[in-house]
Amino acid sequence: MLDDETILLTPAGYSRLEKELERLRTVERREVAERIRDSQRSGEFAENAEYEEAKAEQALVEGRIRDLRRTLQRAEVIEVDAIPTDQVGIGSVVTVRDMGANEEWTITLVGSVEADPDQDLISDESPMGRALMGKKAGAKVTVDVPAGRIRYRIERIAR
């Protein structure tokens, strides 16, 4: 059962977040701590830019660790078998055809936490995601983008 605090993640997304958390905890924390120690040996704190930079980086790392822990605690991983193929849903791998350019594009629809447009992981909350959600193969959708409107036809839906 989902509530407003639940975060839906694909199995791959959950795994990526777990790996990032582990890297931050085991590698990044240690590297930042070493930079802080090294910069403390370099001189006065009042005039030590390296120290201030390392402390700021430490705050960013600790903040990201906190955010990832919170996200993973609230996460509900979508079972692969539960990813729909009859209509577009979170976790669906969707191939669309840009009807103007006649080019295909394959995306994976994900929750906003794991969205990464550079990797074709498109948020269900984005204009593209909202247009695709619940649609079936063969459906045509129009997506408003800054450059105008793009019409797509859903070619395939897979897991």
The CATH topology of the largest domain is given as Chitinase A, domain 3
Structure summary, number of beta strands: 7
Strand order of the largest sheet: 5-4-3-7-6
Helix content: 25-40%
Strand share of the residues?
25-35%
Mean pLDDT: 92
Number of domains: 2
Unreliable runs? none
* The named CATH superfamily of the largest domain: Transcription elongation factor, GreA/GreB, C-terminal domain
Instruction: Please count the helical segments.
Output: 3
Rg calculated over all Cα atoms: 21 Å
Q: Alpha-carbon distance between the termini? A: 22 Å
Sum up the overall morphology in one term. elongated
Element string (H = helix, E = strand): EHHEEEEHEE
In the CATH hierarchy, what is the architecture of the largest domain at level 2?
Roll
What's the CATH class of the largest domain, please?
Alpha Beta
Structural class: alpha/beta
Please outline the major beta sheet. 5 strands, mixed
Short description:
The protein has two domains: 7-77, Orthogonal Bundle (Helix Hairpins), CATH 1.10.287.180; 80-158, Transcription elongation factor, GreA/GreB, C-terminal domain (Chitinase A, domain 3), CATH 3.10.50.30. The model has no long low-confidence stretch (mean pLDDT 92).
Question: What does it look like?
Answer:
The protein has about 160 residues and is α/β, with parallel strands linked by helices. It folds into two domains: about 5-75, Orthogonal Bundle (Helix Hairpins); about 80-159, Chitinase A, domain 3 (Roll). Helices cover about 40% and strands about 25% of the residues. The protein is built from three helices and seven strands; from the N terminus they run E-H-H-E-E-E-E-H-E-E. It has helices spanning about 10-40, 50-75, 125-130; strands at about 5-10, 75, 95-100, 105-110, 120-125, 140-145, 150-159. The strands form two sheets. A five-stranded mixed sheet has the order 5-4-3-7-6. A two-stranded parallel sheet has the order 1-2. The longest helix is centred in the N-terminal third of the chain and has 31 residues, at about 10-40. The protein is elongated. About 20% of the residues are buried. The mean pLDDT is about 90.
